[in-house]
Write a structure and sequence with these properties.
It is a single chain. With 291 residues, the chain is of the alpha/beta class. The protein folds into two domains: 2-97 and 170-290, Alpha-Beta Barrel (TIM Barrel); 100-157, DNA polymerase, domain 1. The protein has ten helices and eight strands. Strands 1, 2, 3, 4, 5, 6, 7 and 8 form an eight-stranded mixed sheet that branches. The mean pLDDT is 95. The chain binds adenosine monophosphate and manganese (II) ion (3 copies). One manganese (II) ion (MN) binds at residues 65, 76, 191-192.
Length: 291
């Protein structure tokens, strides 16, 4: 029987609004059987989430979503089944998070120049984890301060390339992020690839193929096919890329909080026919998955 998997979601350890325990409780209520918490650049929610998952009889997978710069693009690489004590991973993420702090300062300076003051303090008020400050925290504050009606409009008006609060940033390098994941025993998954192809600065098909070739070359094993950020047409499109590059397929809601996400946890659509699920790779070697 097909279990209900959600292998991508966020707690308030990064830019989600629920605590790790609340994320697990919501997932349990909504029928998720196998859950990975994948906070951005931080693994501090994993212990709490694992305890909560155990209480709910759910299978829990350690996860993380690492921010990566590749050419002119920002990518997200999810690590599944990582060992959160692996020193290069711990140290790598510490460096990424400290870069976030510096970027936040610059963002607030840019917004101040555009006439919007007090944003740094305002954004940090929304960050439950002061070491993990994100554009999302800025967006929530700017909504509260009355500059936009919702988080989405803040991004469009202030926080994306070409807008007053956007600050270019160098994240981790793709081979490094993948090595941290593999070295800790995890599987590297390219998150929501459709997002990198959208918009004015999105990559074309040729660049997507170059990215996937490089990703595989570095040891990447899977891509997200079914995610809250893809349309059904994109499920089919990325199922074809998965076949072409011999990649396993992953699925996750990318849930950030009630009312703020494209998709809530649980009941994700099935993969297109022919996809090999990423959990095939761990079913043979471990007993992580309940029958
Ligand atoms: P950061 O890693 O701090 O640059 O922030 C990226 C996060 O912002 C993503 O993980 C999403 O949660 C959120 N995000 C990015 N683009 C948008 C958008 N257009 N609308 C709403 N949220 C977005
Ligand atoms: Mn996010
Ligand atoms: Mn992401
Ligand atoms: Mn995410």
């Amino acid at each position: 029987m097909m279990l209900d998997y959600d292998l991508h979601c966020h707690s308030n350890i990064s830019d989600g609004t629920l605590t790790p325990t609340e994320v697990v409780e919501r997932a349990a209520l909504r029928g998720v059987k196998v859950l990975a918490l994948t906070d951005h650049d931080d693994m501090d929610g994993l212990d709490e989430a694992r305890s909560a998952a155990t209480r709910h009889g759910m299978t829990f997978i350690n996860g993380v979503e690492i921010s990566v710069s590749w050419r002119s693009h920002t990518l997200h690489v999810v690590g599944l089944g990582i060992a959160p004590e692996y020193p290069p991973l711990v140290e790598g993420l510490r460096v990424v998070r400290s870069g976030r702090g510096l970027r936040a300062r610059k963002m607030s300076e840019e917004l101040a120049k555009a006439g919007i003051g007090g944003v740094l303090e305002g954004a940090y008020n929304y960050a439950s984890n002061p070491n993990m400050i994100s554009r999302t925290h800025f967006a929530r504050f700017l909504v509260e301060a009355g500059h936009c009606k919702d988080v989405k409009s803040v991004f469009n008006r202030f926080l994306v390339k070409g807008k007053p609060g956007y600050v270019p940033h160098q994240w981790s390098a793709l081979p490094d992020a993948i090595n941290w994941i593999l070295g800790s025993g995890g599987i590297a998954v390219l998150a929501h690839p459709g997002r990198y192809m959208s918009g004015r600065v999105g990559m074309g098909k040729k660049t997507m193929r170059e990215l996937l070739a490089e990703f595989v070359d570095c040891g990447g094993r899977a891509i997200e096919v079914v995610t809250g950020s893809h349309t059904p047409e994109q499920y089919a499109e990325f199922a074809r890329y998965a076949e072409e590059f011999d990649l396993l397929c992953s699925c996750g809601s990318d849930f950030h909080g009630p009312g703020e996400s494209y998709r809530d946890m649980g009941r994700l659509p099935d993969f297109p026919i022919g996809c090999r699920p990423v959990w095939e790779s761990w079913q043979q070697v471990t007993s992580m998955t309940a029958a």
